[in-house]
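Pilot study result, target chain (355 residues):
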Amino acid sequence: MASSLSTVLSMSVSNIHTRRVRTRSLLSPLSISATRRRLTIRAAETDANEVKPQAPDKAPAGSGSSFNQLLGIKGAKQETNKWKIRLQLTKPVTWPPLVWGVICGAAASGNFQWNLEDVAKSIVCMMMSGPFLTGYTQTLNDYYDREIDAINEPYRPIPSGAISENEVITQIWVLLLGGLSLAGLLDVWAGHDYPVVFYLALGGSLLSYIYSAPPLKLKQNGWIGNFALGASYISLPWWAGQALFGTLTPDIIVLTLLYSIAGLGIAIVNDFKSIEGDRALGLQSLPVAFGAETAKWICVGAIDITQISVAGYLLGAGKPYYALALLALILPQIVFQFQYFLKDPVKYDVKYQRR
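Predicted structure:
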């Protein structure tokens, strides 16, 4: 879905030449204080005064998929191997859009060359954006959502007790510091006078933190939270890839932020599985605020209208073939929306995302 437009956009802007900006930025959020043994990432005990549900000691036995467990999606098998559990917390299924965003940004810079050095740089940037900083974001989100998950998905690692909170906090720090270190390395490698990639990573990390953690907890507001999530998944990795190989320009910043409206729709897909817990703890996700029927149309509308609008923009910019290519990529997406998601967004959310 999001990658469809990213592909066409990257082709359409790859010939934009600008002078090299001596800047640096990237993706990842935090503001976590540390006490002597553990980081007090305290969820303000989930900033709600409602009665806190007790998570079961063990997840439901037997059923579940090992593949889903490794991808970090619902329907996961109960696992005792700590490394598999750590991987599950990072939700590898969420990495590909970030990796693809880096590729699009690198292509849009017009400076990427198919040589060993540029390929190595792009791979490091993908590692930073995907496994490290997205993994950090997802682990952090699971930490702060542990009470909601105790209602919606009690078999998940934290509410089920498969991994301790101290171990989760350690993982959050390792992934964050690892991602920021890779960002600094990329700036040095690219010869930046200003640490663009590092500041992008730092800003994205902060955004991830305020999305999940009190007191701001942006995810409490369906509109703001989902747009912030969409921008993190679409704009930030693109900016990182483009800044790494060329210049990050105002027109690209505006265009990718507008496209992040489609990311808002994609983020809503993930809210349907959490309706019960969100409602119980007072989180105003769009399915809670508007009901599942209305929210599913907001979701597909944000995705499709944004992409069709960009196709119109490409046509108006004298790029009819790119516009047609984008429309060709949108059509299967609409088919799957009617075939799965619009029929039952709770039942088919994972199947639709896989398409």
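One observation from the pilot: The radius of gyration is 20 Å. A full batch analysis is planned for the follow-on phase.
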